[in-house]
Amino acid sequence: MTTKHTPGPLSVSFRTKWPFDILIVNQSEDVVYRDSLPCHSSKDKSFEEALNCRNFKASEQEEYAAINHRAVADAYLRAAAPDLLRLLKEARRTLEM
Fold this sequence. Notes:
By secondary structure, the protein is an alpha+beta fold. The protein contains 2 helices and 3 strands, in the order βββαα. The radius of gyration is 17 Å and the shape is elongated. It starts with 10 loop residues before the first strand and ends with a helix.
């Protein structure tokens, strides 16, 4: 059984203006995955301010910033998936020798 996947290498980039998209792009700079910060602030904020929820109430800021940081970390993991798959296949071949 062959499973299709997006070939790598992939990288993560960010749209630094509202709506603050998290992008996974291939070598040709084609977007292969797009997500937005789950919790973002208004259009007049910078990406860093939105990422860290600078305009949220202090009591909610840490919780919502953690959600955003998780989304960014997930994007890096997705982008690493083709390389991880390649390395796992190499390790399997090595162990089968």
